[in-house]
Amino acid sequence: MHYDLELESPLAWISYDYFKHWGEKVGGESGFTSTGFMQFVEPDAAGSLQANIQMQQKLGIHTLLINGEDVGRLAPHFYREDIQMAAYEPESGYADPSSCTQSFIDRARESGCGLVQNCEVLRLLVEGDTMRGVKTSEGDFLHR
Fold first, then answer.
1. Same domain, yes or no: 47 and 75
2. Partners of 76 in the beta sheet?
3. Which of 6, 7, 46, 87 ranks highest by number of CB atoms within 10 Å?
C-alpha cells in the first residue's frame, strides 16, 4: 500500500479490505497472501519516506518507520549493513490475478450478467455524467 501519491494509497487501503474479506464481499478465492512489505530508500530520500509514512498513517494504513536492526529481526536473511531506515507494512501482500478475475466473473454470472470475450470496445456510451453502456464490435451493450 506504499505509494507516494496520496490518490493511490486510499485505493490500496480500500482494496486491502476487499482482499482481506474476499469471501464475504465477492465470493470465491482471491489468492491473497499476507507477506508484509518493506520500502527501502537511499539516505537522501529519508524525508520523502517519512512524509509518505505520515500520509499513509493518516489514512489508517498500518505502516511504520523502522531501522536496520528492525529489518534484521523481520528478515534475518536480508543484507542490511547499509540500511538506515525503511517503511514497513505488516499487513501488505499480494493476490492471484487469475483467481480474482474468475471470482468476479462467477459473481457477475450469479447476478444475471453475461461475459462477452474477443469483442472490441469501440466507445463508452455516456449521457451527462452517467455511463449508459458500451458500443462494441459485437453491438451495443446498454445498462438496464
1. yes
2. none
3. 87
Task: Give the DSSP per-residue string, 74-112.
Answer: H-TTS--TT---EEEETT-EE--HHHHHHHHHHHHHHTT
Residues 80 and 62 in one domain: yes
For residue 31, what are the domain limits? 8-113
In the block, residue with C-alpha cell 451527462: 128
pLDDT attached to residue 114: 84
Distance CA 144, CA 133 (A): 9
| Same-domain pairing of 109 and 126 | no
Structure confidence by residue, pLDDT tens digits, 50-78: 999 999 999 999 999 999 999 999 999 99
**2 found inside a domain:** no
Distance (Å) of CA 12 to CA 22, 51, 93, 99: 15, 17, 11, 18
Q: How far apart are CA 39 and CA 66, in angstroms?
A: 10
